[in-house]
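Below is how a single chain appears once it has passed through the pipeline. First comes the sequence as given, then the structure the pipeline wrote out for it. We keep one example in the README because the format questions we get most often are answered faster by looking than by reading.
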Amino acid sequence: MEENLLAWKDISTLVRVESIREVNAVKRIDIRYFISDEDIEKARYYSSLVRDHWSIENGLHWYLDVIFREDACRVRSGHAPANLSVVRKGCPRFPSDGTKLL
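Resulting structure:
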């Protein structure tokens, strides 16, 4: 246990994010925790970091699933899954308005 604590010795902030979502009159509350080595006392700062992170994550996952149909891919053995992941994430994002890249 002490080795684990030593690896986290520079942590100075614990952030608690409570998300409330209501769909079809069903309310869901999720609580997530984040750690930081920054010592900023403004909640707005950490809120911005969390929103920016999820914005990037959601955009990437949408792109991988819609453009490459990653969720439907059944490649699961050997090095193929890792190789496909590199190719998918390394491809340029094509404009959605139909313009050509070259």
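Residues 2-90 form one domain.

See the next section for the split statistics.
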